[in-house]
Amino acid sequence: QVHLVESGGGLVQAGGSLRLSCVASGLTFRLFTMGWFRQAPGKEREFVGAISRSTGNTDYGASVKGRFTVSRDNAKNTVYLQMTSLKPEDTAVYYCAVSIVIMTSRTDDYGYWGQGTQVTVSS
Fold this sequence. Notes:
The protein is mainly beta. The chain is about 0% helix and about 50% strand.
């Protein structure tokens, strides 16, 4: 049974930084691509970034490129989202997810999801 547990969300001022963590269990972590998505109230779920299985290549959504970094520690079964230069527009619930695809930004390609963690950026 795959289980994803997220942490690190909270309230931060605009321009600040925050690091989210997601610990996975029930799978051979290194064999899966890990993604981050976010969803603000009344808006569609949006791709934030991902890090691939095997190669460790990363990809990012246009709105966060240059500000956010996805990384992983396979020994700890953990994927991270380091967020810097945060803006009020980044306020959302952030989700981590698992995919068998080598690299993808499509929601439908991710089969398992965490519970989400709230990030609120104040102005």
